[in-house]
UniProtKB/TrEMBL annotation:
Originating organism: Nguyenibacter vanlangensis
Keyword field: Oxidoreductase
Domain of life assignment: Bacteria
Upper classification of the organism: Bacteria, Pseudomonadati, Pseudomonadota, Alphaproteobacteria, Acetobacterales
Pfam families linked: adh_short
Residues making up the signal peptide according to the UniProt record: none
Name the UniProt record assigns to this protein: SDR family NAD(P)-dependent oxidoreductase
Family, similarity comment: Belongs to the short-chain dehydrogenases/reductases (SDR) family.
Amino acid sequence: MTARLPPCLPEGSVALVTGASRGIGRATALALAEDGAHCILTARSQGGLEETDDLIARRTGRSATLLPMDLREGAAIDALGPSIAARFGRLDILVHCAATLGVLTPITHMRAEDWEAALAINATAAWRLIRTAAPLLDRAPAGRAVFLTDGHAVRPASFWGMMAASKAAMEAAVLSWADEIAPGSALRVNLYDPGPVATRLRVQAMPAADLAPLPRPDAVAPAIAALCRPGETRHGQRIVGQHIAG
């Protein structure tokens, strides 16, 4: 059996991970828990969150805090910061993995409800997370925030307008926030584009595609977890597909 590495995060670190019921969000939560963080997990699926919690417990002997929620509900996001402050008194890490593909369709064929849902989940939720988490992250000894993005945000393509526009808006908000952080702050904020990964979102986008050559979520998660460690110095950057060993 492979020996478990010692935790990389300071004792008592608290991490908030969205989209943690499956895929990259689940794998990232597990990686952060193994690094020593207590993980607060959000997603719409209670069952999926419980499965992630079971994996964390089996791997680390500790439980996570589960918060089933829909990121389209702004008031629920706004309450996260105060709730975390009241219960834990700190937040060291925010990793925003939750996303929606929307609908692959020509711009001229988009339905208003699909467009608004994509913006709500991919862009507005990110802004609300920033606003609610920033006060706690600012006070953390080594606050870290990582927002997962997609290549279409910088390389728009036919039929991907919904994803491209909503992720571009998210990137602009995140990088603006990063630029606003005081030069002497210990807080580091970055975007991470994992590239194509074998996830359910990928299947939804390309049902006939062969996923075998693509990295699995657990191959992507260590690079995301590494961006959350105190030794990470990059800030305000868009980092692409640096899959590393844990």
